[in-house]
């Protein structure tokens, strides 16, 4: 009986060791195993996600982050490259509003371009969104948005010429909005 238990322990240890690899997902999205991890929790291709919760830490840029609740955003996940893009295309050059980046179950999305309010007011905007997959087609983004380099047409400009807003969004898959194909 002792030989049996020793064999069982050895096989169990071998099975656990085989499940681990030097490329296991450590959250930095640079591994080959991340595709297997994320593939079961995030729908592939273009989908729409609803913002189901917003927590605002600070809104110095006065973007109205608290008003984002219940907005629906396009989200594109390409499994082959593990690239996730979140938000409408905005700015110059055009980028997803909350960024894009390589992800595992965690990752960082980036957006850095010039934005405008639709008039002559233009500024530089950088969004860093920390992605965390929390369930099947549910994830959070911890967003830090920094605006700077305002043109003279922007009035008023923030004190010191730079502002930062910090907020957290929870997003969950939903049906496409009626104007999704427009």
Write the layout of secondary structure elements.
Blueprint (H helix, E strand, L loop, with lengths): L1 H18 L14 H6 L5 E15 L12 E7 L4 E4 L2 E2 L4 E2 L3 E3 L3 E11 L5 E14 L2 E11 L14 E12 L8
Antiparallel strand pairs: 1-2, 1-10, 2-3, 3-6, 4-5, 7-8, 8-9, 9-10
Strand content: 35-45%
**So how many helices?**
2
Q: Which stretches are low in confidence, meaning pLDDT under 50 for 5 or more residues running?
A: 4-37
Structural class: mainly beta
Percent of residues in helices comes to 10-25%
**Tally of extended strands?**
10
Please describe the biggest sheet, giving its number of strands, its sense, and whether it closes into a barrel: 8 strands, antiparallel
Ends: how far apart? 70 Å
Strand order of the largest sheet: 6-3-2-1-10-9-8-7
